[in-house]
Amino acid sequence: MRNGIYFAHRDDEREAVFNQRYRIYVEDKKRYADRADHDNKRLVTAEDANARQLMAVDDGQLIATMRIVYGADAPFSDALQATYEIARFSDLIAERDILVLEHFLIDPAARGGGVTMQLMLAAAGFAVENGVEMAFCATEPDLLNQYLQLGFRPYAGSQRDPDGGVQIPLLFAVKDREYLQSVGSPMARMAWERAADGIDDGLRQRLDEVAPVPGQPAEAAGYWQTVRGELLMTKNHGPRLFDDFDPDEMTRLLEQGNVLECADGVRVIKAGAATRAMYILLSGLLEVHRSGRLVRVIVPGSVFGEVAFLLGTSRSADVYAVAPKSRLLALSDSTVAELIEADSVLAAKLMTNLARSVCARFAAQ
After folding, report:
1. Domain 220-364, what architecture?
2. Distance from C-alpha of 323 to C-alpha of 302, rounded to nearest angstrom
3. Domain 4-210 listed as CATH 2.40.50.140
4. Which of 58, 243, 281, 344 has the greatest CB tally within 10 Å of its CB?
């Protein structure tokens, strides 16, 4: 295969994409085993029949891929329609002007380099050149902040992925030049230079309704005050992540993470998954299951997922929401790293309480 970033056209290129998908999803992340072709070590779904496979090749080796399902190529499947709630925008945007971005995968050896941005810029360039107005995708909670920095926005509640836990649907308004510039998106310049007409007023109003600017929720001060009050009222008798935090410190930490709401039965964490976030339960109730057996109940104020977060290992158990609505705060490894850099005092309190919490739980076993 030739080096560069381009769409797969030959059969061997497409097979390389499906083989990489199998390696990362099935072998590394322990997902989609029930639908994979294990004999040929490939992972293909029905949507691939009409999808475009964007690929990055270096030294003749495939290092990154992204599936682009383009509404102008074929109608979106019922599964994609339901997952991304595309109908919420169908009165304003034709399917031919919509993309769905999925299976954005990078080989472990290539992570942390520039290929992530190069592939995303290539996808954005395709969107602008073809007059696309909206792109949809979904991400795991620990990667959410990276997508927000690119200019994506949450617009729907968290989704249940039977194989991967919680997924957060996101949208990217290709022509919303002002918003992309306001968040410092690397795609902003492309939008200003090549999407000359900008976003229309009707779509802007819809976005204001369903996808308000992240980090600026209505009555933000009151929202965080309510969350803080819920945490202070919890009856968790062990060490808590917020012990010795004053109200301002607690609010600053809460604002660093992403609050997720999960319905009863949603699997928040899947055993064997390689995700990099720890969580604090703000309200509701969770159960931890190992090998099908209930081993722990998580109550508000408790931290969970911290062992895999600290050690960089796979998840050791399944975690399910068991209340009508459970609300939790996700803190990714990149978020904590940024906190250490920007606010060392607050980060030191966080890590000290985290260590106390881990020690107390192991001492009780």
Report:
1. Sandwich (2.60)
2. 15
3. no
4. 281
